[in-house]
From TrEMBL:
Biological source species: Atrichornis clamosus
Localisation: Cell projection, Cilium membrane
UniProt name for this protein: TMM17 protein
Membrane topology: Multi-pass membrane protein
The gene coding this protein: Tmem17_1
Matches recorded under Pfam families: Transmemb_17
UniProt keywords, alphabetically: Cell membrane, Cell projection, Cilium, Cilium biogenesis/degradation, Membrane, Transmembrane, Transmembrane helix
Family that this chain belongs to: Belongs to the TMEM17 family.
């Protein structure tokens, strides 16, 4: 019985769990400092992003942890999709949009968070591919054995 989960992905998730509160506190404090200097639509966008990232990150980390350790493809696929389609574009928006008046500390924590997300997207993809291929092979072998058992003896 081959272990399909990824140690590198699990370590990344572990460190991300401890880094996220640090990232959140720094981002909220800097948002508080620069809130009055932002335009109204950037105020709305940043508050919405912080709520969305906070909720999504908890769900994303739970799905990644569960999907990787228990080798569950749907949970790991959900983790991969949330990372690729929500978290990574949001962090890249926060990192590269100069209209947000980015501070150097804010840029530093966004870069670290973006590195976590980029690594997790890549590693989760390869882990998912390995899990799906192995589970498909197991399914085919099980079906083959079932068909051989049902075949009448000559």
């Amino acid at each position: 019985c081959e272990i399909l989960s990824s140690l590198a992905l699990q370590m990344s998730l572990y460190f991300n769990i401890y880094f996220f509160p640090f990232w959140w506190l720094i981002t909220i404090n800097i948002l508080y400092v620069k809130y009055s200097t932002l335009s109204d639509y950037y105020k709305f966008i940043l508050v919405t992003i912080m709520i969305l990232v906070s909720l999504t990150e908890v769900i994303r980390l739970y799905l990644g942890w569960l999907g990787n350790l228990q080798e569950k493809v749907p949970e790991l696929a959900g983790f991969w999709l949330l990372t690729l389609l929500l978290q990574l574009p949001i962090i890249l928006f926060l990192l590269f949009n100069e209209g947000l008046k980015i501070h150097s500390l804010e840029r530093a924590v966004h870069i670290v968070f973006a590195c976590f997300l980029a690594f997790q997207v890549l590693d989760a993809f390869f882990t998912l591919r390995r899990m799906v291929n192995t589970l498909a092979a197991r399914f085919r072998l099980t079906e083959l054995h079932r068909l051989e058992e049902q075949r009448p003896a000559p």
